[in-house]
Amino acid sequence: MSPAASAPSSGAAQPPRRVAFQGEPGAYSHQACRETCPQMEALPCRTFEDAIEATRSGRADMAMLPVENTTYGRVADIHSLLPNSGLHIVAEAFVRVHINLLAVPGTPLEAVREAVSHTVLLGQCRAFLRDHAIHPVVAADTAGAARTVAADALPARAALASELAGEIYGLEVLARHIEDQSNNTTRFLLMARAPDWSRRGRSGMMTALVFRVRNIPAALYKAMGGFATNGVNMTKLESYMVGGSFTATQFFAEVEGHPEDENLARALEELRYFTSQLTILGVYPADPRRH
Questions:
Q1: Per the record, where are the segments of Low complexity compositional bias (predicted)?
Q2: CB contact at 8 A, 105 and 172
Q3: What is the C-alpha separation between 138 and 125, in angstroms, rounded?
């Protein structure tokens, strides 16, 4: 029997009201909240742990957490937090990350000498900064950089951030979409207190799980065999140390399909035979932009 639904659906009488995210207003996670959950109030949190706790405690109905970026790679902190968060993945969202040069209104581009932002964004705009002789300055986060630039009101200093940050802090966009990689995209996971296996997505379903293999020769190889023989596509497999031990390893995996699908059900049954621990973290519709 499927777990009870908790995420918003077309038949829900009252949709969730708040979605927590890490960062200040105007962060790219805030943009993800606006795009994915426009009917919900976005709740800024200082850390990823705070966003998870806000959801766990009921102050927020969901948490919007970034897990990987096409340019930067995976968000390691999130992957280590997921298994013990006490939350369940109920959706995924792919958000196009456009980086913009923001300055106080009336500033000409040639007046800018410094660009302030998170080190990740600075690294993604090297070509533009080099071509315009703009010196990169590292800040703790993107939205915070925009807020600081607005407060300092120095024409020579600009911020690299989202257009949403410019809107919130009253900054002018001097240059749009200046990232080096034209496909710069961040994938987010929406987490809730209860799982929802009730939906079927038009672009297919995804299942996320964590497991530990039994301490026998070729256990991982044998555990993966069930997915191959049953025609289940595995889109992600990552390993993590457990408790600081080099011999205890936990795996995070994502596969296409729903646990109630016959082929995935057989694959999971075979996986259980070779594992000492198996937990399904979420079952959710695949974002159309995944494909």
A1: 1-16
A2: yes
A3: 13
**161: three-class secondary structure by DSSP:** strand
* b/e map 78-92, b = 16+ CB within 10 Å: bbebbbebebbbbbb
Query: Which candidate, 37, 173, 17, places its Cα nearest to that of 93?
Result: 37
* Average pLDDT value for residue range 137-148: 95
Q: What is the DSSP letter of 32?
A: H
To the question of pTM greater than 0.90 for the whole model, the response is no
50-74: burial string, b at 16+ Cβ within 10 Å, e else: bbbbbbbeeebbbbbbbbbbebbee
Strand ranges (E), the chain: 18-22, 41-45, 62-69, 73-74, 88-96, 100-103, 114-118, 135-139, 157-161, 172-175, 185-192, 205-213, 234-242, 245-256, 275-285
Residue 237, number of CB atoms within 10 A of its CB: 13
What does the alpha-carbon distance between residue 65 and residue 79 come to, in Å, rounded to a whole number?
A: 10
From 186, 211, 227, 275, active-site residue: 186
Between CA 194 and CA 78 the distance in angstroms is: 19
DSSP state letter for 275: E
Active-site choice (21, 128, 188, 251): 188
Q: pLDDT of 215-233, one tens digit each? A: 778 888 988 999 999 999 9
The rounded distance, in Å, linking the Cα atoms of 41 and 47 is 18
74 pLDDT band (50/70/90 cuts)? confident
267: exposed, middle or buried (Cβ count in 10 Å: 0-12, 13-18, 19+): buried
User: Does the active-site annotation cover 185?
Assistant: no
